[in-house]
Amino acid sequence: MPRPMTAGRSGTGGGRSAGGRGGKSAPGKGGLRGGRQAKPRRPRFREQSKCRFCRDKVKEIDYKDIGALQKLTTQHGKMFSRKRSGNCALHQRSARRAIKRARFVGLIPYIS
């Protein structure tokens, strides 16, 4: 069933206006907005370092190691993502299991 027409919407579809940004840049501008030179961007993240558990050659993260588990959770009890914690996929899964086990046993809280 088609949606009813409302004020402010054109019936052409596509979502682009006639004089929008889809065309060529103005002559002499070099394709940049306002004629400014683009400055080189800094990398957002450091070079990828090894996972802390891989460095220590840990096979499985122990659920009784409260200090290590608390470094992998926020103050509210949420788990950090892999990107934030710096863990590899294998150790992130192991940490997830260890955190859940520690919560179940009562060593760390579900929420703060």
Write a brief caption for the model.
This protein is mostly helical.
Poorly predicted tracts of residues:
none
- The helix content is 25-40%
Cα-based radius of gyration, to the nearest Å: 26 Å
* Tertiary shape: flat
- Measured by DSSP, the beta-strand proportion falls in under 5%
Biggest β-sheet: count, sense, barrel?
none
Give the helix tally: 4
- Report the end-to-end length measured between terminal Cα atoms: 48 Å
Mean pLDDT across all amino acids: 80
How many individual β-strands?
0
Succession of helices and strands: HHHH
Structural class: mainly alpha
Q: Please, could you describe this protein's structure?
A:
The protein is mainly alpha-helical and 112 residues long. Helices cover 28% and strands 0% of the residues. The chain has 4 helices and no strands.
Features:
112 residues; mainly alpha; 4 helices
Helix and strand arrangement:
Elements: H1 52-55, H2 66-71, H3 82-85, H4 89-105
